[in-house]
């Protein structure tokens, strides 16, 4: 009985370990690089800032799935566009929630990395 339970726990642990990297690393390399380049452009071009910006996107990726990150970035981009058609992206509750989630993840990353 104990051997069966131990085998079950080992199997569950192996599955969790296999799922975890994919869940935490669902951001494409290009998206991570874009974030780091933009972060460095805003904060400086030193090795120390590179490490802090890389840490920052890692924290964001651990808190926010890539799909939500893309949606929030899209809303922020569309908010910069003028016109009546874009007003929905400035006032819709769902758009505001996406941006708020991204802002919380960014605040957490600043606390942990900078």
Tell me what you see in this structure:
The protein is an all-alpha fold and 114 residues long. It has one domain (26-113). The protein has helices spanning 2-24, 29-43, 47-63, 66-79, 87-91, 93-113. Helix 3 (47-63) packs across helix 6 (93-113). Residues 1-22 have low confidence and may be disordered.
Show unreliable segments.
1-22
Order of helices and strands: HHHHHH
- Count of distinct structural domains: 1
Structural class: mainly alpha
Question: What share of residues are in beta strands?
Answer: under 5%
Name some characteristics of this structure.
114 residues; globular; 6 helices; mainly alpha
Q: What is shown here, in short?
A:
With 114 residues, this protein is mainly α. It has one domain. Helices cover 83% and strands 0% of the residues.
Helix-strand blueprint:
Blueprint: H1 2-24, H2 29-43, H3 47-63, H4 66-79, H5 87-91, H6 93-113
Helix pairs in contact: 2-3, 3-6, 4-6
């Amino acid at each position: 009985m104990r051997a069966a339970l131990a085998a079950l726990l080992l199997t569950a642990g192996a599955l969790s370990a296999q799922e975890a990297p994919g869940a935490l690393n669902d951001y494409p390399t290009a998206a991570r690089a874009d974030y780091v380049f933009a972060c460095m452009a805003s904060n400086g071009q030193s090795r120390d800032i590179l490490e802090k910006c890389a840490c920052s996107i890692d924290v964001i990726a651990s808190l926010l799935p890539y799909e939500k990150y893309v949606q929030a970035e899209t809303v922020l981009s569309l908010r910069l566009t003028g016109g009546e058609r874009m007003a929905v992206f400035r006032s819709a509750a769902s758009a505001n929630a996406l941006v708020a989630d991204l802002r919380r993840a960014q605040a957490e990353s600043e606390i942990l990395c900078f």
